[in-house]
Write a structure and sequence with these properties.
Layout: E1 2-11, E2 25-31, E3 43-51, H1 54-69
């Protein structure tokens, strides 16, 4: 399981979206703004997810189940 570690808007004319295969992360990258009239602009919406350790993943899952069961 992964947890959201960061949400950023990146201007690709000024910086790159960093992707390092040596890290246990997942990136969701999409165009931004979401309602842009002309697609393909330089802005990207980047959500970074970090891999949870097995114990943390179990605790995270238990919390999600408890929250879903709450009235």
């Amino acid at each position: 399981e992964y947890r959201v570690a960061a949400i950023d808007v990146v201007d690709t004319t000024k910086q790159r979206v960093r992707m390092d295969a040596r890290e246990s992360v997942v990136l969701l990258v999409t165009c931004y703004p979401f309602d842009a009239v002309v697609p393909g602009g330089p802005l990207r919406y980047v959500v970074t997810g970090e891999l949870l350790a097995p114990a943390a993943a179990t605790a995270h899952r238990a919390l999600a189940v408890a929250q879903a069961a709450a009235p």
